[in-house]
Amino acid sequence: MLRYIIKRLLFVIPTFLGVSLITFALIQLAPGSPVAYKLRGEGGAMRANFETEKIIEQTKALYGLDKPIIVQYLLWLRRIITLDFGKSFKDQRFVMEKIWETLPITLQFTILETFLIYLIAIPIGAYSAVRSRSFLDQLITIILFLLYSLPSFWVAMLLIMFLGGGDWWNLFPVNGINSIDAYAYPWWKWLLDRLWHIVLPLFCMTYGGLAGLSRYMRTGMLDVIKQDYIRTARAYGLSEKMIVFKYAMRNSLIPIVTIFGGLLPGLISGSVIIETIFSIPGMGRLGFEAVLSRDYPLIMGIFTISTFLTLFGLIINDILYALVDPRIRLE
Amino acid sequence: MVWSEFKKNKMAMCGLVVIFFFGFIATFAPFIANDVPIVMKKNNRIYLFPNVIKYSDLLSENLYANFDLWKPAPGEWCIKPIVPFGPLRQNLEVVLHPPNRIHWLGTDDRGRDVLSRMIWGARLSLSVGFVSVGIAVLMGIVLGSLAGFLGSWVDTVVLRLIELMLVIPTFFLIITVMAFLPPSVWTIMVVIGLTSWPGVARLVRGEFLRQREMEYVLSAKVLGLSGIRTMFRHVLPNALGPVYVSATFGLAGAILMESGLSFLGFGAPPPTPSWGELLKQSQSYVDFAWWLVLFPGLAIFITVTAFNLVGEGLRDAMDPRLRGGR
Questions:
Q1: pTM score, two decimals?
Q2: What is the three-class DSSP state of B206?
Q3: ipTM of the complex in this document
Q4: Between chains, do A158 and B294 touch, taking CB under 8 Å as contact?
């Protein structure tokens, strides 16, 4: 097991180099870099006002753009390894500091989201498979299919329009994750306030994955139910409850575990739109604002950190997969 | 064989009909929603299709910029499209009107007709979808078949590349690139295409590995066919089945991605009509402008659902395990 983990960690190195190359290429696209000059002409099309000149100078100094390209890359690699992304252009605060502030909020959403998805999807999928082709199964299948295709930002806008004030109901707040005076609340009121604030965004983040996972669970369970050992269990006269919960469910959970890692890449990407819509001060919105204000150090930092997190998630995933399925040999 | 199976699936056929409907609207947008007439008589001359052909004498009268104000004088006539508003035509007298008899789906914050913009938006969504999926499929097939065919270090490199693409936050990468590069529809297509090939590559690679062990490959070898010929003339066509399925789902994904980008303001440059851009506008008027939220979102939802339905239908039709089972 330990050997496997070490081997898996060694595999991270090429991926890590790839990530550094991609971010390095991104720096080359930023104003002040040689590529940007080529794209825009010497200070030409781009408005070369004082502000941009300042940014160009800062970028040059930060990434050592006046040095040969190999040196530039090695400098960048050192920055990535030491997690030193410099200071944000916008407010001159350290990039890592800004990320550490927002990461817990996004993580909180991700954890709740994953928990809810698994909690709801597994019973729905299993029920659908066991009662396959019944009326309820077909209804569930259609609803899940529609949910799966619903664009989350549209749902968010609809929810804000109908439930978040305006001309219709005003049931939920649509800005931020706490009321302004929440710091003065007793803890239980604070918690309720937080819950009240995150219901809508959490719903928007959850339903898509929920639909996907339920469908996956249904297929997996259907496959298992067809197997010989389930028929044998029936022939032995075991109760249906026993067959479903003790024998079928366990094996159908194996493929579900692999999806776990697949949920993580959405950590930042998936939260950009929803966090922006609901003004949630998480990493997704931080990234969106960084891109809008072309805050290169911050963009690079967020990009690299979220890649690391995903990579980490995938490794955990591999290990989990091996743990639940003894047929998978760890070499 | 696949088609006859596919036809039996009513939902998938519905999806296909919807796609053809949107495709028709997108293709003939200038004939459906435009303030430039389809046929018109002016200056004792009949102009055919001024909406697609720019006539020099109409241009010299500066008519193209002012077709909304032009009324046929006695002796002149014109036939206008069914939605007689151009997608870019602003009319500040009808800003943010709810749906009414003139503007069936209302107007946006510059007095542009929402229905007209949605019809032209279908053009953008579908073309972005098809071109970017085209790029992704091409890349996926080339890299996947090279990996599956050559094996050894090529396979390793492709696998590492796939893992890399899985790990990086794609959406964030796309908005960063879109913010850095000059905005254009082509940039969107290329960027979405370049980030969505790994699924296809993995499928093709897997199929190649599977098919390589099959007997027909052995018999091709016995017949003395070259390895490259066998792989690309015989194995590749067999490996394409799952690619079609994945491409159809990819179309749904690309359309969703495009509208998401436009929604955040990283889509096609401003006056270009797009479904996501209409939704973006609605953010500022969400307290009352329900038509700006409802209709564009519905269009995205229906299109994405249609492609997903067709994808499912294709997958079921191609899967021999499901065939005849019903």
A1: 0.86
A2: helix
A3: 0.86
A4: yes
